[in-house]
Structures are given as structure tokens and as C-alpha cells.
Amino acid sequence: MARKKAEDVEEKEDKRDAEDIMMDLAGVPGDVQVEARALRRNMSGFETKVWKFLGKDENPWGFLRQYPVEGLFLDFYSQHFNVDLEADGPHHLNRRASDRRRDRTLMKKGVRTIRLTPADFVKSSKEELFIYVRNAIENTDHDG
Known about the structure:
By secondary structure, the protein is of the alpha+beta class. Helices cover 53% and strands 17% of the residues.
């Protein structure tokens, strides 16, 4: 009977998102985890497009979606490279000043922000965009 319960727990943990596991390991409070989970379930169409572009679970940079850092939820966060990749849809056109303040706050904590817009997907091929993102991420100072 005890063996069955242990297997059930392992099976349940295997079904959790990588984001949930990492937040548990980082000691993120439960209410923040609930909010992050809700944001992941309700990503914008453009965020979903960027997530598919990054490769979802197979993404080479280990991005986590809607990950909380310094009281902010980062669209896509790579802990290894300490990079925030933001999917800036049309609503960001009116938020440039607040986005700059947000980027400065994160930079003070060593997190570099890279921003993608829908126009980036129009003006660049998928391969060109991947190279741009790879270079922007991997040419960032990191501990790894």
C-alpha cells in the first residue's frame, strides 16, 4: 500500500510543468505560483507563437513561462542565461516608458531583457529570427 502511494506521488510530480517544479525549488510562495499558473494558461496569441518558436519543452535555452522575478512575471525566463525574453504584442506600444523602467529593475538584478514583436516575425525568416535570438541570449554574460 505504501508503495502504491509513493508511485502516485511520483506520477503526479511528473505531470507538473517545469515552471511549477522550479518555483517549488526556489521557494516561490503558493499564491504567486497560482497567479503564474493562471498567466501560463491564458497566454496571449503572440506569447503562444513565441513559445512555439522557442520550442516549448524542447527549447534550447531552458525558458520558463511567466516566471516570477522581483515581483514581476517574465514572459520567458532562462535561469541559466539570466535572460528575460518578452513577447511584446500591440499593447506594449503604449507601455514603452513602463517597459524601460521594468527592464532597468531587472538589469539591477542581473537579468537582461530581450524583446520580440510581431513585426520581428514578419520582417525576418524563422531561421534569421532564431539566429538573432540565439546570439542575443548566448552572448550575454552568465554563470553557466
